[in-house]
Amino acid sequence: MNIFQKLTSAFKKKDYVYPIGALLPSWLSSQPVYTDWSTEHAVREGFKSSHYVYACIQRIMKAAASVPWLVRDSKGQELVDNPLSLLIKKPNPFMSFQDLIEILTAHLYLGGNGLWLKNKANGITTELWPIGPDGIKPVPSATEFIKHYKYQKGNVTKIYKVEEILHALFPDPNNVYWGMSPLQAGAKIVDTEVDAINWNKVALQNRAVADGVFTFKQPLTKDQWETAREMIREQHQGSDTARTPWVLGSDADWKQMSLSPVEMDFIESRKLSREEICSIFGVPPPLVGIYEHTPLANIKEARKIFWLDTIIPYLDDLQSSFNLSLAPEFGEGIQLKFDISNVEALREVFKDLVETGYKLFQMGVPFDQINQRLQLGLDKVPSGKIGYLPSSLLPTSMTVSGEGLKKNP
Question: What is the mean pLDDT of residues 16-40?
Fold first, then answer.
């Protein structure tokens, strides 16, 4: 029995030990993978608390969901009647495929993991449903990499087979089973931004509490102290009276105790935070409404950068996950492909690629090679594997005469 036969036999018997599985501590095998990061917490403290986090993720969600997906066979031909084509047109009775992509994208960028439940009939997926990442965890196995997925919410516990779950993730170098979100890496920056907003809100509502102290040259009776405190509250607490002049009797003196927002360079610090948040998610600042120091001519370039550096690599990741976990169920060679041919921001890029492809074709490079190398996304054509040269081109060692081609002496 050769090595290939041995491996095949081992896979069938389920006794093959994966390299990563062999390194699993005995206590970790068959135990769900838990982390200290919660998607629900990320939604509450990031997505719902920071308008820049919301704007960045919303921008990515809408862009990714706007791209259509096509089902193609092994020859690159589009299939419209394949069951997979019908599935992505209506993944479940209540959601579109665009809805699923938006939810998956939000879960990935907030929690690092996106999961779909695959309802099956006769071994074929007939419905796709999103699952909240906090409620489900993979269970590692030394022989099967992942033994199953365990869902637990309150008193409800359910076990899902690996083939019932589509799991996309952003890799965490310390955990091959569970992903890490961009927000997790930038949590302190987002916290700083949220705290700055809260601090400013409290400062407007209650200006005198932390900024300084009133002193009087003469001791105050309890009634005088209560009167002075009431005057301060009426005149200077709340956003309507913030930063108004002080009016207080009894020979009072004001002493500064803390730095003002100007001295703390409050505005500049917030500008730095918002740009860092945009950097974390790969969204150019102009695309979330930050037009400062950005000429209008550069906004077009910002959209192009956003698609080339953020959306297309992200769609590549999704495409890989779909073709690994979903497409093989629907036939050999079946694949899901995203189609960006109608993205306005990429029209110039496509035009440049077409011009490059034309030059290569003139040099004799076959169409199929050009299409693949430049990722043009065009349908295959007859004789696409053949290269052509202009008829006027001849080797320098040949000349044309009335008798036809002749080799030069």
Answer: 62
- Domain end call among 215, 242, 266: 266
Tokens of 198: 């809260």
Please give the Cα distance from 103 to 130 (Å, whole number): 7
Closest CA to 67 of 408, 331, 316, 240: 316
Strand ranges (E), 64-154:
69-72, 113-121, 124-131, 136-141, 145-153
CA 247 to chain centre: 53
Tally of structural domains, the chain: 2
Give the Cα separation of 171 and 181 in Å (integer). Answer: 8
Question: 293 is written with which tokens?
Answer: 């120091």
List Cβ<8 Å contacts ≥24 apart for 199-205.
Answer: 200/261, 200/266, 203/242, 203/261, 204/238, 204/239, 204/242, 205/237, 205/238, 205/239
> What pLDDT is attached to residue 186?
77
pLDDT at 208 over 50: no
Please classify residue 58 by burial: count the beta carbons closer than 10 Å to its beta carbon, then call 0-12 exposed, 13-18 middle and 19+ buried.
middle
Please report where in the chains the tokens 């505005």 appear, as a residue: 267
Residue 369 lies in a domain: yes
* Nearby residues of 115 by Cβ (< 8 Å), 6 or more positions away: 107, 130, 131, 133, 136, 149, 165, 166, 167, 168
Domain-embedded: residue 248: yes
Q: pLDDT tens digits for 114-161?
A: 999 999 988 899 999 999 998 899 998 877 888 899 998 888 899 999
Query: Whole domain around residue 261: which residue ranges?
Result: 189-266
Contact 285, 294 (CB under 8 A): yes
Please say which residue of 266, 286, 301 terminates a domain.
266
